Amino acid sequence: MAEDQAKAPVPLASDAPAAEADAGPSNAQTATDALSNVKVFAPPAETSGPQPVELDDAFFEHSISDVQALHASVAGQSSRLNNAPLLTSKYRDADRAAKEQKKADRWPTATIRVKFSDGTQIQSTFPSSSPIQPVYDFIRLSLSPEALEKTFTLYQPPRTLYPEKPPPPDPKKAKPVNPAMKAHIVAPANYGHVRGDVVAGLQGGTGGKESLSELGLVPQSVLLVKWDDAAMNASTFPAPLADHLKASVAPLPAPTVKAETQKERKPLTGSGGDVKMPKWLQKGLLKKK
């Protein structure tokens, strides 16, 4: 009896009736394909990773090029925000869809690495147009039979959650609103942090049909597992992976460090120690007077 239960197929939460299936591959098929390309990495050693480098105090002094670059960045961002044309929701949606399509053409797949509390990581690739649900199914297919019934949530530090399903509404926050006093506020399109409800790509997922591209998880991302059972979140708790995955554990590859070319930094101080002010900054200050 126990052997029959062990051989039973793993129920996937994202399985849907055939009538509701899209033209593309189903979530269950996407998870199965990801499991066939899974890679398992052991927890990193304590001595791995780049060693901290002692920086000289002159490194933190601003040069003329640093001030010019900062001024150009702030001025350009201010110009884009102030001179941007007013668009209707139809054109905003079309612009957002064009940007997402451009991103999908550049990165058709997303490499997702899932990290457990002990540091063990599993990695696979998913279509960038796939929602977050196949990632959950992929993790369940990788778990041992003892951990299949355990519930978990994927997140990124510090508190960016990617739930599998939409969270239930909080009755404490539900307040009667007079329809005559209700105002519809249109959030700016990717202009920064938006307060209020969760916005895709800014504050994590909503558990809906947002793609990995819309969630900002392409081309590659690391997601952490948070179990509802607090004991499984301890760093000493071993990753509850299936036996065939534990046998294929490989050491975590060392990070590649790009060689940086040091540019000559022009100091702001002259030979006499006086602070030299750029001409463009002097003109800006004189205009304000």
TrEMBL record:
It comes from the Eukaryota. Residues 13-28 have a biased composition (Low complexity). One of its GO terms (cellular component) is vesicle membrane. Residues 105-156 form the UBX domain. GO terms for biological process: intracellular protein transport. Residues 1-53, 254-289 are annotated as: Disordered. Pfam families: UBX. PANTHER family: TETHER CONTAINING UBX DOMAIN FOR GLUT4. This is Tether containing UBX domain for GLUT4.
